Amino acid sequence: MLVLVLNAGSSSLKYQLMNPETAEVKATGLCERIGIDGKLVHEANDEKIKLDVTMPTHKEAIEIVIETLTQGEGKVIDSIEEIQAIGHRVVHGGEYFNSSVIVNDDVISKLKKLIPLAPLHNPANIMGMEIAQQILPGKPNVAVFDTAFHQTMPASSYMYAVPYEDYKNHGVRKYGFHGTSHYYVSNEAKKMLNKEDSKVIVCHLGNGSSVCAVRDGKSIDTSMGLTPLEGLIMGTRSGDIDAGVLSYLMEKKDMSAQETVNYLNKKSGLLGVSGISSDLREIIEACENGDERAKTTIDMKCNRIKKYICSYAGMLEGVDAVCFTAGIGENADLIREKVCSGLEFMGIEIDEDKNKVRSDENREINSDNSKTKIYVIPTNEEYVIANDTYKLTKA
Ligand code: AMP
Question: Of 3.30.420.40, 3.10.290.10, 1.10.3720.10, 1.10.150.110, which CATH number belongs to 2-145?
């Protein structure tokens, strides 16, 4: 039996058809420009198919995905009966959900209540579920939350130092994101350490980036907050910033509160500081060509990660493994090296040659003397979503 994993964004839909028992991926793809015109990229049977198809809404997008999976060049199944269930990536589960759940009316109504906390993401996720229910009637849908893994954080980590009533009345607290990835990577690290009572720090470094402190398999703190804006310097997000900068920028640039938050989300981070790109590869290239601002950008990015590693090592009272994952964490040896350099005093010692090895496998890149393991672990959020979906829906 197969699970269809859906990740619905405001104008996009990522999908993967997977066998959760073997982790075999049958097909993967992306619908983009939904509501504008419509583009589909579908990968299956070692082929990549690109199609321009009209997708006025997510409904047509899911219909096209089903059609492509069952007919023509990209066909991988004979009928939708081979799909056991649909697993949905959901960005915000608030305090309602600390694990994955089968979607029902109550779940949808709670997700609707959470829209103010994730105005861009939750509406798209809900739409994905409602349309999947229509197009694949009778098939169970499961919601897997980015926030759920962090629900184990103690109040001392998740509270902001604002009046308590704002937490009680408005849900102002740290929720954390990338939970599915932090769960997967810390669990892999636990297996590699072969240790139950483990202290692990996961650095998920992609276009969006966050760090998580994991003790004995449970998240105890993470760098993203009420929204995914807090923490590390990201592709276009500033990460941690003095809240005073907001009102100062609003006044100086005559921007509304929403415009200022957009500015910090979309125009800042690596893109804003470097003036080059949100893609780290282009900034590294500029740095190699002597661009000083690019060098400062990279130093800022690495220093911020280092700060979090040190502070989380303090909270964990030691660290068994530091893990790197996602686009930058898995591929950018320069960043891993810069982040780890100088941390030898904490027992973190990278091996230069092992760090340069390129691979899709989990790997250890610390020196033989290093007290702390340093791992590169390719993340697999889709596998976690498919597996949770399978476990919750198998007869
Ligand atoms: P993700 O969001 O996990 O897909 O990560 C995307 C980011 O990974 C891109 O924006 C790139 O900046 C970064 N990335 C991918 N490959 C490399 C690489 N070889 N070196 C540096 N950065 C990379």
Answer: 3.30.420.40
